[in-house]
Amino acid sequence: MENLLCDEVWLSSSGTPKLSHEREHCTLKGYADSFYTTKEDSERAFVICLEKEFSYRPEPGYLDYLQSNNLVFARFRAVQWLIKTSTRLTLSIGTVFNAANYLDRFLSLSQCNGWRHWMVELLSVACLSIASKYNETSLPSLDELQMEDLEHSFQSSTIQQMELMLLQALKWRLGSTTTYSYIELITSNIIHLKCNLQKELINQVNKTLLKAILDFKLLSYPPSVVAISALWCSLEELIPSSYNVHLTNIMNLINHHEDDIIKCRRIIKAWLVDPFYNLKVSEHYHYYPSSPVTVLLMERIDINDCQVDFSLFRMPDSNVNIPESSGTKRKRAEQ
Questions:
Q1: pLDDT band at 334 (very low <50, low <70, confident <90, very high)
Q2: Which of these, 246, 232, 223, 242, lies nearest to 29 by C-alpha position?
Q3: Beta bridge partners of 153
Q4: Radius of gyration of the chain (CA)
Q5: Exposed, middle or buried: residue 117 (CB in 10 Å: 0-12, 13-18, 19+)?
Q6: FRET pair for 210, CA 20 to 30 Å: which of 101, 112, 216, 219?
């Protein structure tokens, strides 16, 4: 259990995924590399995000699927790995949110009722690899992605086959609308604070949202609701005397979700008070009983192409080509 408990220190440290070097200067009261240079542009982009966010959410019934297949803890560990690896490789924070979105969407599409640990790890590596290719200008190698915190090691060809299956399942739709999409817009032009407060707000909200993607219960809310709830908590803490003014401006952009925002904020406040809240919730839905001590002492298991049966992922879409393992090809050739 110790390696999980220590992660709260890691998540609150300065080593969270980078925002980009230019953003330090606060030239636009937010993100210097934002595409939107006026408040009106940001508000229009915000509305567009609201219109498309539902098409990038997991399939209906996803939370029930996670619970019925004992995947809640597996998902927690997978997202935890995405964040830690992105931090280690100094990937952008947008890459983390995209990778987590790909993971949830793929899991929600699968009809597999017997997920194995290596399957979740292989999917996680593929998600982070694809998100890096979509977001980053300097790409980590597949070996670099797998250097730490995995119990299995995969050949590059295996990961590439998983990437192709992932892309086909997602219909190549990678420009996801995530909670981070909204924070980037709101903090660039919609909220105007002094530069030092703006930086503090951005850092605090991003740390809150990184914790939020660990909590599977928040997947029941649209990304816009989670983003505004996290922003509400941060504004309330940073500027308690005037946060209502900024919150009202933001709430005017979103309709019919006020009750959901209040409920979501209540969940976020619960784990801001109790830093181990997410861990307790995920452990309640236990996935596999591996002791952290055992994991640390155990040698990593090399997974070869011939050992991977991609049909186990059980993707229902006829447009998803299931790669054949080299072992299956060999058997077919011998017949």
A1: very low
A2: 246
A3: 302
A4: 20
A5: middle
A6: 112
